[in-house]
Design brief:
The protein is an alpha/beta fold. It has 18 helices and 11 strands. The strands form 3 sheets. A 5-stranded parallel beta sheet has the order 1-3-2-4-5. A 4-stranded parallel beta sheet has the order 9-6-10-11, with helices on both faces. Strands 7-8 form a two-stranded antiparallel sheet. The termini are far apart.
Length: 425
């Protein structure tokens, strides 16, 4: 879809500003009541979803050019979906997140991408990863010492898709190996894509590079189909969302996709994974955007919009409404609660109303100061709970939250849920 396809939605927005806040009945305290990092940080309406609806209107009607200020407002969106969830509390006929991404695509189509964004896309084209400076030849270095099959050459029970962040960040390799060992503990034959392993390109979609995303996505879908893959397990929330929502939208089918926390929870429930060590620690859990509110599976819809009495707009048949409630929230919490000695305390903004870590939408590359501030805001919230550490289930969240300072200059320990599980086994 192009930007003009969202014009009717732009006109429908009632300017209620719900996109800037978590639902009022979910507000625990005023300090942590806002949900849009962009509108809070820049403190200007154009940076909110409502503002972007208006910006889309003036761009399509040629009342304004795509100025640097307009580009900044469009680009400074983490594609976290918080505005989308808040809007759909009382509206069914608006798609703020899709519109925001369409605006980013509009920027790209008009050749306004930043040099750093072009560099990342060139990296994706040449090395099949969006992490700058990394080489395709080094992608599988993390697998050294592991008994993993090549799924392109032999049948496997589980395709383990590590994702770029885990594959190239050596600090995360031990966590990755623990995940593989846990799956193998269940007696399953685990494989990787070998030389066909590449970036899911989900972040290209978030940044508005639709063509680059689709090219890589279709290449992956074809590789999965050729290998006869039936089950993908990934520890990366961005990959999970890309496969579960965006790849399915492009036609991937007959492949089950699980995040590692779903797999581990099942192993705990059937007794395969048992915890024998006590970990006396109070932790809080951070819901990754792409595992939580954006972790809902794609539902195919073929219908059209109709109006009754030239006023009442409806979708026939009823259109899927992605409002975040069916994301992956319970599995990680159940894992944490099952570990002896660990006490879980919750932040004010959780589940579908979680505050973004700041790494999404390309903002960590295009505006690192904004990205760091967003992470610091989350650390402030985490520290307010009295927890000793933040536990999360996404490598991008781990990286962005680690070392981030709260409003008083304090940092907080950040733990990969895989490490917490391994330490208790």
């Amino acid at each position: 879809m192009t930007l003009s396809d969202y014009r009717a939605m732009m006109d429908r927005c009632s300017n209620c500003s719900a996109c800037k806040w978590i639902p009022f009945d979910k507000v625990v305290n005023q300090r942590f009541a806002e949900n849009c990092p962009s509108s809070k940080y820049f403190n200007f309406n154009t940076y909110s979803a409502r503002g972007k609806f208006q910006l889309g209107q003036v761009l399509l009607d040629n009342y304004s050019e795509l100025t640097e200020a307009a580009q900044d407002a469009i680009r400074s969106c983490m594609s976290c979906g918080a505005c989308d969830v808040a809007c759909k509390i009382c509206r069914y006929n608006l798609e703020p997140l899709e519109t925001n991404i369409a605006l980013k695509e509009y920027v790209v189509e008009n050749n306004k991408a930043l040099p750093v964004e072009k560099e990342i896309m060139e990296q994706l084209k040449e090395e099949l990863t969006m992490i700058r400076g990394k080489k395709k030849k080094d992608r599988l270095n993390w697998t050294e010492g592991l008994d993993l099959a090549d799924a392109t050459k032999e049948d496997v029970d589980v395709l383990f898709f590590a994702g770029c962040k885990y594959s190239y960040d050596e600090k995360l390799w031990e966590s990755l190996k623990k995940a593989v060992n846990i799956i193998q503990k269940s007696g399953k034959k685990v494989g990787i894509m070998g030389n066909a392993d590449m970036c899911c390109a989900g972040r290209a979609h978030q940044m508005g590079f639709a063509k680059e995303f689709e090219e890589r996505a279709r290449a992956n879908i074809k590789a999965f189909e050729n290998a006869g893959i039936k089950l993908i397990v990934t520890p990366c929330s961005d990959c999970y969302h890309a496969f579960k929502r965006q790849y399915m939208r492009l036609g991937m089918k007959d492949i089950e996709v699980l995040h590692i926390v779903e797999y581990i929870e099942a192993l705990i429930n059937d007794g395969t994974v048992k915890f024998t060590r006590e970990i006396p620690k109070t932790v809080t859990y951070h819901d990754p955007c792409h595992l939580g509110r954006l972790g809902e599976p794609y539902e195919e819809w073929k219908g059209k919009e109709k109006k009754y009495f030239n006023q009442l707009q409806v979708w026939e048949p009823r259109r899927p409404r992605y409002n975040g409630i069916n994301g992956i929230y319970d599995a990680p919490r159940n894992i944490i609660k099952s570990i002896p000695g660990v006490k879980l305390v919750e932040m004010s903004r959780i589940r579908e109303y979680s505050w973004c870590c700041g790494a999404g939408g390309g903002c960590s590359e295009s505006n690192p100061e904004f990205s760091s501030w967003t992470a610091g805001e989350r650390v402030t919230e985490a520290n307010s709970t009295g927890a000793e550490a933040i536990v999360t289930a996404c490598p991008w969240c781990i990286d962005n939250l680690t070392g981030a300072e709260d409003e008083k200059g304090n940092t907080m320990e950040v733990i990969d849920i895989l490490d917490l599980v391994s330490a208790a086994m």
